[in-house]
Design a protein that fits this description.
The chain is mainly α. Helices cover 62% and strands 0% of the residues. The chain contains two helices and no strands. The longest helix has 20 residues. The chain is elongated, with a radius of gyration of 15 Å.
Length: 65
């Protein structure tokens, strides 16, 4: 699960950067038309932070003694 959380965090960080810079014009299918969308960028950034928290809080492998 940590790997999934890390991959999602990276994807959301990239989407946030693309939204803030306005370079996301190639992704109209997910609601980004290439202009600066501050709300979308903030939402993607928050999702990325939540994925990092999820990765941090995910249980590690159990140690047997």
């Amino acid at each position: 699960m940590k790997t999934l959380a890390l991959v999602l965090a990276i994807v959301f960080f990239i989407l946030a950067i693309l939204c803030f810079t306005g370079m996301a014009s190639f992704m109209p299918a997910i609601g980004i038309d290439g202009t600066h969308h501050t709300k979308h960028g903030i939402a993607y950034f928050i999702l990325a932070i939540l994925c990092v928290v999820w990765m941090r809080m995910a249980g590690g492998s159990t140690v047997r003694r």
